[in-house]
Structure prediction request, 133 residues.
Amino acid sequence: MKRTLLILGCYVLAMASCASPEERAADANKTTETTATAEGTSAAAPADNGAGEQLIAKADCIACHNKDTKIVGPAYVDIAAKYPLNEENVNHLADKVIAGGTGVWGEVPMTPHASLSKDDAKTMVRYILSLKK
Prediction:
């Protein structure tokens, strides 16, 4: 009984600490209205989706996110629908993954992932943004 309660408590704590990043409305408008630049074009090039998907699988992302369904945080396809795949959005969202945050998607903060490298975070974000339907 104690073991079950401990496991359930850990699960609830993990779910509460993993929320999707949200930004202020002004910040969201700024990133969604950006146009692809020469630098942004390289971000829009086909990404190594396998590497991004593998990095996500190794991280704790699946505790709060799913490809097609909102859990605690938004579904990856919803993120891809909101943010065009360009270098500005890739950098911005990679920073949010590393630093954590709250805003656009709700009030539950996303846990920071400070041990994640910027390059790995960018690879993960490129994969997510490539899922646009």
Notes: The helical segments are 2-17, 25-32, 38-44, 49-58, 76-82, 87-99, 118-129. The chain has a mean pLDDT of 76.
